[in-house]
Amino acid sequence: MPPKPSLTHFLCVPLGGAQLARSLSLFRDDVTSIMSFAVPHEAVRPLGTLHLTLGVMSLKEDGVQRATELLESLRLREMLAKIRASVPVNSTAQAGKVAGQGEAAAGDGGLSITIQGLQAMQSPSKTSVLYAPPVDADGTLYRFCQQLRSAFQEAGLIIDDNRPLLLHASIINTIHVKGARGGGRRREKLTLDARDILDRYDDYIWIEDMPVERVTLCRMGAKKIEGTEDDEAYEVEAAAAL
Description:
The protein is α+β, with helices and mostly antiparallel strands and about 240 residues long. Helix content is about 30%, strand content about 20%.
């Protein structure tokens, strides 16, 4: 079996803002405390790295150019308008703000996101990743992201792993804890029994009605942000405004 290609880029909806910064800071202070869950500090992802991943890529220079040109050519407002037009009126009315589509954003043709709760990527009793899902009662956000993903798949840019799109913001990932391994085997990931963490943060609101301003093509590998103690960010290769 040929080796898997190394991943170089990913398409995403970036997350940020003052509300998310406060929510993440409070969460980090709690779960890393030795009086609470004693999660390693490095396992909690920095604010600047939080995003909703739409797909990953393995690109050479010509592929980066093609991906950039494709992203910049997409008419995101028109795409979103067509998606909204296909949603039954009653569904849209009932979903309202619960769908994470604030009135201001929806009214001007844009989109906003609400991120709430916490879930485990693996078994809650032995997991290496905890993530926060978006609230998307009428499915507008999912369909919008799926159409973006499909455009890049059809162009042969996004790696097709035959898995459905899972919109999520990774909050904890133990792979970033240096020198920590679980179970005594060299390559085994550090895992957490996250059942109590999930119970405590089941309804936690990370962001409420955050306007989506852009979709970005980013390079893999977050880098430290100068002037900050522990924040990081991904290098943006290209972006399309919404």
